[in-house]
């Protein structure tokens, strides 16, 4: 059983929070806020994939 990678967990939770925020901001009719949250979620998901690939290359995953 492997140990928990807290950095990956944090990035994943942050991505989910941003995606939830997109839905909330659209419901509140704040299109600009939803766009900003969507861009932030794309960056956080991308960072998570980059981090995972880096850890895999180093053999830590």
UniProtKB/TrEMBL annotation:
Upper classification of the organism: Bacteria, Bacillati, Bacillota, Bacilli, Bacillales
Protein name: Uncharacterized protein
Keywords, ordered alphabetically: Membrane, Transmembrane, Transmembrane helix
Database matches in Pfam families: DUF5325
Gene source species: Gottfriedia solisilvae
Keyword set includes Transmembrane: yes
Membrane-traversing stretches: 7-26, 32-51
């Amino acid at each position: 059983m492997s140990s928990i990678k807290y950095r990956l967990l944090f990035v994943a939770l942050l991505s989910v929070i941003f995606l939830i925020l997109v839905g909330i901001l659209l419901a509140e009719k704040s299109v600009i806020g939803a766009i900003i949250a969507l861009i932030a979620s794309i960056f956080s998901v991308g960072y998570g994939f980059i981090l995972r690939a880096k850890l895999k290359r180093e053999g830590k995953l």
